[in-house]
Amino acid sequence: MIALQWVKKYMRIGILTHHYVKNYGAFLQMKALYETLREVYPKADIRIVNFICQEHLWRNIIHVLHYRRKSDTPVIYREKIRQLRTFIRYERSLPRTARVGTAEEIEALGFDLLVFGSDEIWNAADWGYHPLKFGAGFSEKTKRIAYAPSVGTFFQLSKESIREGIKGFWRVSGRDGETLDFLKRMHRGDAVRMPDPVFLYDFDRDLQKEGIEKKPFRYILIYDCKLTEKQEQQLRAYKDQHGFKLLGAGDYKKMYDGVTVNLTPYEWVSLFWHADKVITGTFHGTAFAIKYHRDFAAFPTERNRIQKVGSLLRDVGMEERMLSPGEEDKLCSILDRESDFTRADACLNRMKEEAFKFLSTG
Question: What is the pTM of this model?
Answer without folding.
Answer: 0.94
